[in-house]
Fold this sequence. Notes:
- The protein is α/β, with parallel strands linked by helices.
- The protein is about 40% helix and about 15% strand.
- The strands form 4 sheets. Strands 8-7-6-1-2-5-14 form a 7-stranded mixed beta sheet, with helices on both faces.
- It is elongated, with a radius of gyration of 25 Å.
Amino acid sequence: MSLPLEGIRVVDFTRAMAGPFCTMLLGDLGAEVIKVEPPQGDETRNWRPPSIGKLSSYFFSVNRNKKSISIDLNKKEGLEVVYRLVESADVLVENFRPGVMQRLGLGYELLSKKNPRLIYCSISGFGQNGPYKDKPGYDLIALAMSGLLSITGEPDRPPVKFGVPIADITAGMMATIAILSALRYRDKHGKGQYIDISMFDTQILILSHQAFNYLATGENPKRLGTAHPNIAPYQAFETKDGYIIITVGNDRLWREFTAAIDRKDLTYDNRFATNPERIKNRKELVEELEKTFKNKSTKEWLSILENAGIPAAPVKLVGEALEDEHTKFRKMIFEIEYEEFGRIKMLGFPIKSSAYELSLNRLPPKLGQHSKEILKELAYGDNIIEEFIKKQVIFTDSS
């Protein structure tokens, strides 16, 4: 069974989250991903605790299905290795600050001359040009500058960061989409291209309906906690023993919802009878529903609402979600034997296809684990490889 990207070679100059998330997805889809690391490695190898063996769990999360070659790019021979690698590659992905790859002698203009079919993707905080291009590309900075942070959190409380680096992850996904599109373009036209992905741009797009709410009214959206700016009730409510999510998406559901929770006094209350009125009188509506939901447990409310056909869900802890029977049924958690650490658990693959099944072909690599193997594929002889190791041009996992 072949995977969609089998035969595609990706040279991966990424670290931290946005870039590695992108290249992991490409590796999952069957590409050969060669992670080019400096002698000290991707810094996230040491973002611990927690860790799995000697590798941080953070590094584990985005570096499966990759090989690792460790090169000193400050040495001429190191650059020559990369040039030879790029000549055999289809894609290069990097997420340094703008200008760094050019200073290293690895900019797009030079590399595209060596390989005109190369697809070269840069991921950065604010893009390769513009007033903010030199600002640091950290997740929290992109969230703040894009406006997303201003609408995250509870009313009259400080902004709250998302629980994972969502700006990084969504930029990595956008880069993956762009690379797949570029491969299709190359199939049709025979040419590579340069791709400029900005975390900031991606977050502006992700503002979605909140941006259009502003464009339609000129009013800045407010922090609403879990509430929806355009639908009510659509948020978390505290129960006797936890929290429950309620999503009443239309007026028919509103009538069925109020009947189910034994609050028919609210059904045709002029303040709440239609969604526009419920939005207008959100504060009073929430106060009424909060009193009701505190009277029963989350499990009791779920039983009542699900039997009435009202969309609702418990707010689960991470462990509860990962141990859930549906998570296991969907194969989103699986175990694998790792030579040094015994059986370990990994996250599964959200892409389910009738044509192929994604799998874990490589665990996150040790630093320089595949340096010798990759150099041999590039037609370097054993003597030259040993000389490179001795001169510290390349490093292996046993260096």
